[in-house]
Amino acid sequence: MKVCSSAYSKMSFGFLNFLELSLPGLCQTQQTDKPEICIFCFAFGSLTSEEWFSMFEFHSKAYAILERISVLLSARTYRMLKQMLGCCKVYISESRNRAAKVSIELASKLFPGAAIVNKFEDITYNGVGYTMVSKLVPDPSSDSYPLKNAVFSMIKAAFEAIDLKLHGGTHPRLGVVDHVCFHPLALTYLEQMAGIAKPLADDIGCNLRVPTFLYGAAHEEGRKLDSIRRAMGYFKPNANGNQWRGGLKSGPLPLKPDKGPDQVIESKGVINLCAVGGDRVQLEVERLAMTEGMAVGKDDDSRPICKNIGVRLESAYVLGFSQRKGKPTQNFRIRKCHHCFLTIWSWSSCLHKDKKKGMKQSMLICCKLYISESRNLAALDSIERAARLDPETAMVNKFLDRAYNRVTYTLVSHIAHDSTGCPIYSPLQQTVVSMVEAACQAINLELHSGAHPRLGVVDDIIFHPLAQTSLDEAAWLARSVAGDIGNRFQLPIFLYGAAHPLGKAPDAIRRELGYYRPNFMGNQWAGWALPEILSVRPDEGPVQVSPARGIAMIGACPWVAMYNVPIISTDVSATRRIARMVSARGGGLPGVQTLGLFHGEESTEIACILLEPNQVGADRVQNRVELLAAEEGLDVEKGYFTDCSQEMLIDKYMKLTLDAPPRLM
C-alpha cells in the first residue's frame, strides 16, 4: 500500500477538498498479485488551496501523482457528487380537493431531477404531505438546484389552487403550505440543506408575498418550531373545540417573519421553513407530543448513509463511503470540517471473480414489468422513453413476443437506506411509475389480443432482490410502487409474495380472477372479459375497473427463472396435458409452474416459471418435457430463457450506469 497526501483544487461549491481516496496505479510500481492503493482524504473547511500548497513541498513525483488524480477524477467527479442526496417534506393543507393536488404534483414534474418518493394523505386532517428527494448539484444554493425549484413550483401551485378561508380539518395549520422541511441524506450535511432553505424563503417572501418563518439550521439562532407556533396560536382549535377552520385573520402578525411582509393574507396564511436532521425532527415531534398532549407516532431517522453504491472512476470502483465530523485542527486552521472517506479498489491486478464479488456488494434490486403489448411500436417507444428518464435506473433486458402480444422489461437500480438500515429511496420507484403511466396512456386493453393470459395493460410487476439486498427491501419497494400506482392512476392493484401481508401466491389471485380462462377462440385472450366491479377487493386502488386499463399485480419474491419449451404441434390440449404433468401442482417437478399455450400458427409452447432455479433447473425441465412429449408422439425444440441470469443483470447494470459519461442535472 502506498500512502500519498496531497491537495486537490476547490470544488465549485467553494469548500477546500483534502481528498483521501484509495486510487490504484498512481505511482509506477512493480505489479503484484494484490491491488495497489493510494490513499487521499478530503475535508470541507476554510483553508484555501494556496495556503495548503504552501505547507508542503512536493517533489516532481508528487505533482505527477496529483496530475493523474485530476485526470481520473475530472470526468467522474460529478458521478460521485450526484450521490449526495437531499430531502424535502412539504406539508399542504388540502387532501379533499383532487384538482388542487393534481395541479401541485404536475408542478413538481416540471423539474424531473427532483422526485416525489412518498405521498401521505389524511382526509380527516384535510392535509397532504409530499416527500421529495433529489441529487445535489455542486452548488446547492444555485438556481439550477432541482429540489429548490420543484418545491417553489409546488408552493406556487398550492397558493393558486387552495383558499385557506374555505379549509377545515382536525389538524392545526398556519397556512396553505403549512410547513416545508429540508433534511440531509446521503453524503450531505445540514449546512448544505440550510443553504437551500434560505434562498427558497427569499423567493417565497419576495415573489409570492407570503410571510415566512425560519427555524432550525435555516435560522441564524437555531430557533425552535414550537416557539413560532405558540406565538401564532397554532395549537388552539377555533371550531367545535377540535377543528381548525379558515386562516389567520388578515392584518399584522404577532411575530415578525424572517422573510416576506409583516401582513398576512387570510387566504394564504404563513409558511414555516427549516433545515433539520432526521433525529432533530423526531425529538421535536416527541417534545411537542408531550408538551401539547398530541398523539404522535414514531418516525424513522431520515439520515441515510449510502454504502456500496458502485461509483466507477476509470478502472476503479468505489465500494464504500463512510463519513464523520472532524475535530478542529489547529495546525491546519480548519475549525469545522467534515471528512468523507472512500474506498476505491482497482481490478487491474485482481482476479475476475474478485471484481464480481466487489460489484455484488452494491445494494441492487431488479424489477420486471410485463406489459400487454408487443406490436404497437409507438406505445413501446413511449414506455422506453419513460424508462430512460433516470440514468441511475438501467433497462438491462427487453423480451418481445409477438404471438403473446406481450413485452417484458427488466430494470435494475440501487436502494438507499436510513441510518437504521431501513430502505427509504430507490430511483426504480419513479421509473416504474413513469413507465406504467406511459403504458396506460398508450395502450387500450379493449383493443388488445394475444395468446397469453393477462389481467391488465400492465399485467405484472415483480421485484427481486439482487446481491446484498434483502427480500424485505424488495417487498418495501413493491408496496411503495403499488401505493403510487393505485392512488395516482386509480388502478386496482393486487399484491402477492413478500409484498402481501400474508404472502399470498400470485397463481391463487389469478385463479380467483379467472386469469387462466381464454375468452376468444379457445386459446386467445381479447379485450376485457371480467366484471367492471371486482368481487375481490384489491390491496390498492379502487374496486371499479377501467376496461381500457384492467388491473395490475405487484409482488416481491426471490429470483425466479422464466424458461419456455416450444412443442412442434398445434394440439394445444396435448401441450396443456404435458405442462400439467411437468408442474409441481400436477405432481411433476418441485418448484415448477407451467402453462400450455398456443404460440404462432404451427406450434405451441410450455411456459415455465422455475421458482427455485438452483434446485430444479432448465435441464431437468427440458428432459421431462421431451420424455412426456415423446409419449404423445410430439417433437420438442430446445427451450429458451426470456431473461438473463442474476450475474448477467448485475454486469449489464454496472456497464450501463458506471461506464456512461457523467450527466449534469
UniProtKB/TrEMBL annotation:
Signal peptide extent: 1-29
Source organism superkingdom: Eukaryota
Official protein name in the record: Formiminotransferase, N-terminal subdomain
Keyword Transcription belongs to the record: no
Keyword Signal belongs to the record: yes
MF terms (GO), sorted A to Z: folic acid binding; transferase activity
Domain Formiminotransferase N-terminal subdomain: start-end pairs: 84-277, 363-558
Matches recorded under Pfam families: FTCD_N
Keywords: Signal
